[in-house]
Amino acid sequence: MPGLYFEEFAVGRTFTHPIRRTVTEADNVFFTAMTHNPAQLHLDEEYAKGTEFGTRIVNSLFTLGLMIGISVGDTTLGTTVANLGMDEVRFPKPVFHGDTLHVESEVLETRPSKSRPGQGIVVFLHKAINQRGEIVAQCKRSALMLGRPKA
Predict the structure, then answer these.
(1) Containing H/E element for 125?
(2) Where do the domains of the chain lie, and which CATH numbers do they carry?
(3) pTM for the whole thing?
C-alpha cells in the first residue's frame, strides 16, 4: 500500500497499524551486535538475572526502529522525502524476548514547507504497545512529505 501525500494527513487522524511483531532473542542479539552496543543488559543473561528485570531486555533503539518501521506502510511508504527528527522519545516499559508489539500513530501537526513548494511537514505521535496493553515506546516524528502530484 503506498503512503499518503501531505494533503491526505489531517490533525487528529489516527492509524492502528495491522502489522504486529513478536520480538525474538535473535532480533535483540543481532541488532545489539550490529550496532556495537556491548551493554550486558542486552547480551548477558547471567548478568541480567541480577538486575531489576531478572532477564535480558531488548535494545531500545531496536524498539524505536521497529515502531516507526511498522507505521511506514500505512502512512509514508514512497511519499516521505526525509525524516526530519524524532523528539520526546520515551521507553516507559521494557521489551522482553517474546513480547508482541503493535503500533498506533496519530497526526499531531501538519504544515506546508516554507522552503519546498509542493511538500509539507507532518508530525506523528507513534506508540508501541505490548500484548499486555502497556506502552513500551513512543516518540514524535517529523517527516517531510511529498505533496500530491499536480495533474
Answers:
(1) strand 119-129
(2) 6-146 (3.10.129.10)
(3) 0.94
d(CA 151, CA 133): 44
**DSSP symbol at 79:** T
User: Binning pLDDT at 50, 70 and 90, where does residue 142 land?
Assistant: very high
CA–CA–CA angle 35, 127, 131 (5° rounding):
90
Distance CA 9, CA 3 (A): 11
Does 119 have pLDDT greater than 70?
yes
Rounded to whole angstroms, how far apart are CA atoms 43 and 45? 6
| C-alpha–C-alpha distance, residues 28 and 21, integer Å | 13
Q: Measuring CA to CA, which residue among 135, 148, 2, 10 is closest to residue 67?
A: 135
Model pLDDT for residues 51-74, shown as the tens digit of each residue: 999 999 999 999 999 999 999 999
Coil, helix or strand at residue 60 = helix
DSSP string, 80-114: EEEEEEEEEEE--S---TT-EEEEEEEEEEEEE-S
- Measured over the CA atoms of residue 10, residue 119, residue 138 and residue 97, the dihedral's sign is positive
